[in-house]
What we know:
The protein is an alpha/beta fold. It is about 40% helix and about 15% strand. The protein has helices at about 15-20, 30-40, 55-60, 85-95, 105-120, 135, 140-145, 160-165, 190-205, 220, 225-230, 255-270, 275-290, 295-315, 340-355, 385-400, and strands spanning about 45, 100-105, 125-130, 150-155, 175-180, 205-210, 235-240, 250-255, 320-325, 330-335, 355, 365, 370-375.
Amino acid sequence: MIAGMSDTAEDVTDTAVRDGRPGADDEPVPTLRERRIAAWRGAPRVLARLGFVAPLKERLALLEAAGSVYDLDEMSDVYGGGVVEALEKRVADVLGTEAAAFFPTGTMAQQVALRCWAGRTGDPRVALHALSHPEVHERNAFSEVGGLRPVRVTDEPRPPTAAEVRDFEEPFGALMLELPLRDAGFVLPTWEELTEVVDAAREREAVVHFDGARLWECTEHFGRPLEEIAGLADSVYVSFYKSLDAYGGAALAGPATLVEEARAWRHRYGGNVFQQFPTVLSALVGLERELPRLPEYVTHARVVAAALREGLAAGGLPWFRVHPEVPHTHDFQVWLPYDAEVAEEAAIRAAEETGNALFANHWGPKGPGLSCTEVYVRAAGLEWTAGDVRAAAVEFARRLTGGNAR
């Protein structure tokens, strides 16, 4: 899965039968994924305009603002340097770390960081959550490529506790904490719980690494600036496309000695790309434009979540779950007692017929007759009032239940 919208195998199979919309014999029937993206693009009102599913011409337009964040008369980057160094310095300044290194992917950045720490601690074991990104989405990269040994502190759909870390039955050299824990519902611990977990790891003489792919959006929940949050860890990874809408890319931030070693491993992993200026410039634009707005998105996501609950209830759904009830970031989950294809079809039809797209992401199966989706709130969502969200939720629920609730 990706950090924004993820797709499953169900999205790319032929859906002529389950859509109930057979096409002409000589025309291919659109998949649910194709219909969902088309409905999202065509809807006048959405909760988030996610750049990576926008047409290429719109994505290229992002660089029109590049001149406001970097001197375009400067020479381009060649294997780092120039604009890449400018981004690295900006990240280190924002996070309050000694240094930072740009990586093409977060998978590479974290693997490099943790193998560097393993060399320092002499222990390749990395304690992490069973729902963390490396365990769920990276094809066992830690063990298959990085020579690391993941050990699962817990598989409960919540952040790990200090007691679980302190009392874990195996030794480990590093503790990796995903902030927020995406697959559990973008959930975060309280600030006190986070500091206690970090302290518990330090009591065991383990280093602490933050999988901060979405760390940018955590300040509102913690009530702390980014420097203070990042300062709890020995190293931090951040993504540029998940919250900041850049073309891609990531950064590893931490002590200068660690970052210098990470640069060597970046080269060995093939991550020292010849030129990266489009991605790097888009990241600088994201830091300039999106980063200051993230607290506003988080605040409004809480309005959206509450209105969704009201609308789904008014629409007559027998059961549903908005999780967390009060979102910790500007992303959260919605669970429904319907097969994923049924929920997806209702969401697509609601967007097509009303022009209001509440659900931009796919619906994934979570068990027999149970499905879940992720809801994202960005700048476009700020235009929705609570009443707007409630009305759209009622319309969506009506298509699921076949009722006429208003």
